[in-house]
Amino acid sequence: MKKLILVSLLSLACSSAVMAQNGPNPYKDCGIGAALFASTPWAAVTSNVIWDVGTTAVISATASPETCSGSEYATAVFINETYESLEQNFVQGEGQFIDTLSSIMSCDTDSSTALTQEVREMMIDQDNTDKTRLEKAENMYLNIMGTQAAKSCSTNV
């Protein structure tokens, strides 16, 4: 068993070195690890390897490397890391977390205002009581990216 794990890790390391020349490093820039530990590369690598021996990270880096970085990725990470505060800002209709989110998404003032309104309306209509925190953050991301206002920000251009 130990040999299998060692061989898997060496294989992952080699493919990581090759992919680093051609795009994002799948173990630190992609997958579940990168989403959870964006600013801690060693934790992202560890998480990706422990989760599924890095398979998801490698697939995402190979099939769609653009999902491993950029403003959409930064938007998802920001929502995941600040979900509770961001949710509170949307309830209030303003706040520094909405301002930061709008900045990450490169929204102008009008788009940011429209985004806030659209997301607030969606939040009123949704019942998230039976969802985990991660599911709530994912729903918020999907809702935000699906708004008309987000389409006018440069994230989706």
Keywords:
157 residues, mainly alpha, 2 domains, 10 helices, 0% strand
Describe the model.
The N and C termini lie far apart (47 Å). The chain is an all-alpha fold and 157 residues long. The longest helix has 22 residues, at 71-92. The protein has helices spanning 2-22, 26-29, 31-36, 41-52, 55-63, 71-92, 96-104, 109-125, 133-145, 148-151. The chain has 2 domains: 2-65, no CATH class; 71-156, no CATH class.
Number of spatially distinct domains: 2
Radius of gyration: 18 Å
Please provide the count of β strands.
Answer: 0
Instruction: Sketch the topology as an H/E string, one letter per element.
Output: HHHHHHHHHH
Mean pLDDT: 76
Class from secondary-structure proportions: mainly alpha
| 3D shape | globular
Count of helices? 10
Uncertain runs with pLDDT below 50, 5 residues or more? Answer: 4-21
Question: Secondary structure elements and their pairing?
Answer:
Blueprint: H1 2-22, H2 26-29, H3 31-36, H4 41-52, H5 55-63, H6 71-92, H7 96-104, H8 109-125, H9 133-145, H10 148-151
Helix pairs in contact: 6-7, 6-9
